[in-house]
Amino acid sequence: xxxxxxxxxxxxxxxLIILFSCSSMPxxxxxxxxxxxxxxxxxxxxxxxxxYRFEKDLDNAIAQYSLNEEGxxxxxxxxxxxxxxxxxxxxxxxxxxxxxxxxxxxxSFFGPFYSGYNVVALEDYKYALIAGKNLDYLWILSxxxxxxENIKQNFISKAQEIGYDTSKLIxxxxxxxxPFEK
Length: 182
Hints:
The chain is built from three helices and nine strands, in the order ααββββββββαβ. By secondary structure, it is α+β, with helices and mostly antiparallel strands. It has an eight-stranded antiparallel barrel with strand order 1-2-3-4-5-6-7-8. Strand 2 (58-67) and strand 3 form a beta hairpin. The longest helix is centred in the first third of the chain and has 22 residues, at 2-23. It starts with a helix and ends in an 11-residue tail after the last strand.
């Protein structure tokens, strides 16, 4: 009986963690509408990000998106760890949190644990501003290794409106070709 209660509590706790990790997003980080996932697929260069442990010491970071057999987005993130002098890569899956025409997704690299991923600004599917699950996660992505200054400033302003402290952005060096690029 005691073991059943403990298992029930653990199951409930795990479910709460999963639900909260999927749905928590900064209030003002509204995803764009009329999103076309097929136009979003392909390679994106990471131009800027907030530093966090999973991308620590990485430059030349890229994200590659494709559809998997189930119609979800297959994610391959890679970069060059300049302290260890080696390329690293991690695979994940992104799923829409609702309507597929709204750029509100959840992404997982570690089993059943998902985190929010909202595309909050998009310029002709060439440049994207991505909000993560809270104000500690932010990315500027580009189809090219650079971003025009006016778009960069628009994205910084948008991020500040959402509540991000953009002084914490790390501008990612893009000076190598990744062996993971297709």
